[in-house]
Amino acid sequence: MKLQFDANQQYQLDAVAAVTELFDGQPQGAPEYSVIQAGDWGGLFAGQARTELGVGNHLLLAPDKLLGNARTVQTRYDIEIADTAAPLESWELFDTAANVPRTCPHFSIEMETGTGKTYVYLRTVFELSRRYGFQKFIIVVPSVAIREGVLKNIEITAEHFRALYNNLPFEHFVYDAKKVNRLRQFAVSNTVQILVINIDAFRKNFTGTEEQQKSNVIYKESDKLSGRQPIEFVQATRPIVIIDEPQSVDSTEKAQEAIRALNPLCTLRYSATHRNPYNLVYRLDPVRAFELRLVKQIVVGSTAAQGGANEAFVRVEQIDYKKGIKAKLRIHVQTPDGPKEKSVTVKSGADLFALSNERAAYRQGYEVAEINAEPGNEYIRFTSGRTMRLGEEIGGMREDVWRTQIKHTVKKHLDKELLLRGRDVKVLSLFFIDRVANYRDYDGSGQPVKGKFAEAFEEALAEFAKDSRYAPLEWLKLPMDRLHNGYFAQDKPKRGQQQPIWKDTRGDTQADDEVYNLIMRDKERLLSEEEPLRFIFSHSALREGWDNPNVFQICTLNETRSAVKKRQEIGRGLRLPVNQVGQRVFDESINKLYVMANESYEDFARALQTEYEEDCGVTFGKVPITALAKIVQVVDGEEKPIGRETAEIIKKALVDQKMLDTEGRIQPAFDPKRKDFKIDLPEPQKELVPAVVDLLASYQIERHIRKDKDEGPNRLKKEVTLSPEFTALWDRIKPKTTYRVEFETDVLVQRAVDGIKRMERIEPPKIRVTAGQLEVRRGGVVTQAMSVAEEQVSFNQRPVPDVLAYLQNETELTRSTLVRILKG
Description:
Layout: H1 10-20, E1 39-40, E2 48-50, E3 55-57, H2 63-76, E4 90-95, E5 100-111, H3 117-132, E6 136-141, H4 144-164, E7 170-174, H5 182-188, E8 192-198, H6 200-207, H7 210-215, H8 230-235, E9 240-244, H9 246-249, H10 253-260, E10 266-271, E11 280-284, H11 286-291, E12 297-306, E13 314-320, E14 326-335, E15 338-346, H12 352-355, E16 368-372, E17 379-382, E18 387-389, E19 393-394, H13 398-419, E20 428-433, E21 440-442, E22 448-450, H14 452-465, E23 484-487, E24 489-491, E25 501-503, H15 510-521, H16 523-527, E26 535-539, E27 551-556, H17 566-571, E28 592-597, H18 601-616, H19 625-629, E29 632-635, E30 638-641, H20 643-656, H21 689-699, H22 718-721, H23 724-733, H24 745-758, E31 766-777, E32 780-792, H25 803-811, H26 815-823
Parallel strand pairs: 5-10, 5-11, 6-8, 6-9, 7-8, 9-10, 12-28, 20-26, 20-27, 23-26, 27-28
Antiparallel strand pairs: 1-2, 2-3, 4-5, 12-31, 13-14, 13-19, 14-15, 16-17, 17-18, 21-22, 24-25, 29-30, 31-32
């Protein structure tokens, strides 16, 4: 399997151009040279500067020219700027190579997950070198998982870029504290140099103890480097620093200080979720990515238990120490219509029996003995001795839920395989778990045994393999252990053991580094039909390392309720799939990612929309002025955009008619379905009314939001209370009345039996799986139910409450009478 890359995807070319055109007017430098000496060079070597330590990038553009270029680029790509005359956001630093103070401007590029962000910034490197002679680049990443992903991308795109750029020579390497001499080669080389470095590798000097600072090799003088510090060779090159996921890389002052120490010419910041989008020059937000079908559509399967409320159900939703230590729990509360799930807030000493309206399941052992709100170690302990951690859940038929999740994920996988037969597209499914032992455990002698998730998976797959519908899938005849496997951190095998021991980790240990490397190394192998492995289990902590385009199903089987963001959850499978010759498949009918969630798909969609709004600054239901400016009008027989000036006139008219507020948010008055609905625009723009209505409708939030009303005290209406009708009513109801009811026991029993027989049948507990497709639109994240399936729970041993005691307490009848009624 060899992945193919399309060099002509317009949105990627736009993202590259948004950066390269910032330097328009910079003289083109020479592609090669060999002499190294001090001093700056113009003419043939304009893009490069030579110092006694090496060859560096050299910016000859005046600050005003760079600012003008940035504003031109931002206008072209519809980036709204509050003050176009404001200077570029930048760092003030001292240029150690030139021995002068200068600024280091930042430029941000926003690209939705799965749209080729890494490809774009790697191609930008080659384009900057080709056009301007810049040759020294550093890619700073936040984690080992992303670092391994970058290295894999460089490896698989190398041939593609060599073909595009006439075999332009380049070298890349990862910073290694044991090989600091490689930094001298980075500095003196006359070819494109790409250094990939984890922020933790050089941040330690600014965050650690004095002893740690001294141990950071990059800042220590080295005999191998003629007594110089390794960092000096980097500084001498004025590298263009590419920051991958800046919200995770330089989110602290110390991290920013460490990056400033590299003496960057500028920083190029790439992310889908910028916290601070400094000098944003290009934006491909999630809505546009979905509209252009650059990523898979999302289908969410929700799993919910119905019935089975006899057990004590508790889920720890939140533990907080603000305004006193407290916890938010989800429990069953008794109501006139039966037990219902409800969130309650508890402090130490609270009794769930009382909070549940005295449900018998909570009668003993559910008083809160302790709440620990220490970040990272949150838990709640009950008087029974049971301790529950944040996100943990008991009761609620949890085992039946995860078994159903596994079964339906397997079924979706098999259905997708049938759909793609003959299309040469391999299907992969990812299961994320938070405890390795649930997939693979070890017996007393250290030999591996299947965990409960592995057993449930094999049971489900074996059951479906007997179904004649799936007979065309030849791989189902292979041994089961060749079809599924796990990717986990591991310890080396001990004496007497043949295999390494898998273990739980946090995602940032040395053992995790090896797994990330393995995941990336196996990327193409997993895409090949020659490799039978299709179902992959991995630790939730390793989620960031997974980035395989042919993942069509994702199932999270955490025993605790996942706190991972929805964008992270879907991000592992958003990329468009590839076929067996490595080409992307652009077919909307198959490009759908199925996410098996343990919540309703409406809740999932709501949470996803909130994250888009918080992470990306996407405001659903808000019409930007740039969108109005793109409305087309026919002038002299030619279609032309109306432009910003006319757009402002239209916006003012819409605000005056209360269709929009001053910030462009759609108001309730905009309701095209209303019979008397109309929009009035000034005479020159009247013909644009249909286009304006269509545009606003595309941004309208697809859910009803009730307008909040100011409420005040109600006034006593004396004309009502003094009326003859009210007086007559009051005279009839004001006397206090006591009722006594007498009945014959035999008659009561018979009537109760007859009444029970007429009641609706009590259904056994079920697990309901609802699948809904998500549409990410300008108006919001919209859900649409597609299918519903139910699984009846098989009973082995389940607690049964004392029914007679419960009924006696509720009805005050004797136990013997209740027994006669129940026997019918």
